[in-house]
Amino acid sequence: MKFTITRSTFIKTLNDVSRAISSKTTIPILTGLKLVLTDDSLVLTGSDADISIEARIDANSETNDLQVESTGAIVLPARFFSEIVKRLPEAKMTVEVRDNLQTVITSGASEFTINGLDADQYPRLPEISAPNPLVFDPAILKQLISQTVIAVSNQESRPMLTGVHLTISGNTLVAVATDSHRLAQRVLELQTPTNQDYDVIIPGKSLIELSRTMDDDLDQVEIRIAENQVLFIAGNTAFYSRLLEGNYPDTTRLIPTSSTTTIEFSAPAFLAAIQRASLLSHESRNNVVRLNINVADQKATIYGNSPDVGNVEEELQFSNLQGDDLEISFNPDYMKDALQSFGQSTIEVAFTAPLRPFTLVPSEDKTHFIQLITPVRTY
């Protein structure tokens, strides 16, 4: 096996695939990078058994400048190989695998020799076919991921909550994540209705890595769902993830259907105020800020306090306030995550009681995106 390629092209693909490679895997060969060279392409594969990424470099593309001399396959130690490739002196590099699996990497006057492994020993990726795959706009899919993964749990004691629950029926997709302290739900209307219903839980870590591999110039992302795997096809990259097993809790009953107090904020302005209030709350053991709403005086005030450092008080700017007076405390980090997911929108925050969860929704579309936060008891 021997090929020559432009290093910048190879490094970009290598970086994408390396996201799936872990040094802590229990399967030694998975610490390696698999390369398969045919007459028309070079395919790189990385996997940690949970996530697998396969990326293809087309030999027929002039921009790649991939020149194939002899075909073959090899698994190379990913960490060493990546470091070598990134430090080579010239714009082009040549990789040659010899009969004893020794691999020679040359660029200009530099030459490295590293030991490879038999590619036949590398686990095979599942074949996932779908006669009617789901097709998404990459920008919308990235937005859906960023708006929901913030609420997945980091606690492995409840594995289901470490994923995003996806239900698809007809032309509606609902994505929900919760860690039992907060919840994020996004609803999408599909352009083409599906003829099959889906109910799956995708690990949050997988979706974060998927989002990082998707280029802005992609036309579409295709999704294929199997019994215990999901496959995302984005351009020349195939991203596999295992699905989490079990039944996701029913989250519909957690979202309040009525409110006693509503207030509208500019999301960026409210976010800036929360960031200022949390400067002191982070120095306190309980990390809580307090919001006081006085409807009669049309005032909303936020307080942050640390017994050791001091306190902060700020009167908030808002566009609409109605309902009952309220005093409520919450974790400012949860609020910051929620507000960042709304971008430049105007949001409506709806409260029912000081110790009941409250919701944040975009003022112009209150049905397709909702964030929910559970308040903190301070007495």
Automatic annotation (TrEMBL):
Identify a single GO molecular function assigned to this protein: 3'-5' exonuclease activity
Q: Which residues form the DNA polymerase III beta sliding clamp C-terminal domain?
A: 253-376
Single GO biological process annotation from the record? DNA strand elongation involved in DNA replication
Superkingdom of the organism of origin: Bacteria
Residue intervals of the DNA polymerase III beta sliding clamp N-terminal domain: 1-126
The alphabetical list of record keywords is: Cytoplasm, DNA replication, DNA-binding, DNA-directed DNA polymerase, Nucleotidyltransferase, Transferase
Q: Where in the cell is it found?
A: Cytoplasm
One short Pfam name that applies is DNA_pol3_beta_3
**Which InterPro entries does the record cross-reference, listed alphabetically?**
DNA_clamp_sf, DNA_polIII_beta, DNA_polIII_beta_C, DNA_polIII_beta_cen, DNA_polIII_beta_N
Q: Name one GO cellular component term.
A: cytoplasm
- In what residue span(s) does the DNA polymerase III beta sliding clamp central domain sit? 139-250
Q: What is its main location?
A: cytoplasm
Q: Which family does it belong to?
A: Belongs to the beta sliding clamp family.
- Could you give the subunit structure recorded for this chain? Forms a ring-shaped head-to-tail homodimer around DNA.
Role played: Confers DNA tethering and processivity to DNA polymerases and other proteins. Acts as a clamp, forming a ring around DNA (a reaction catalyzed by the clamp-loading complex) which diffuses in an ATP-independent manner freely and bidirectionally along dsDNA. Initially characterized for its ability to contact the catalytic subunit of DNA polymerase III (Pol III), a complex, multichain enzyme responsible for most of the replicative synthesis in bacteria; Pol III exhibits 3'-5' exonuclease proofreading activity.
- Quote the NCBIfam families the UniProt record gives: dnan
This chain belongs to which protein, by name?
Beta sliding clamp
Q: Which organism is it from?
A: Lacticaseibacillus brantae DSM 23927
Taxonomy of the source species: Bacteria, Bacillati, Bacillota, Bacilli, Lactobacillales
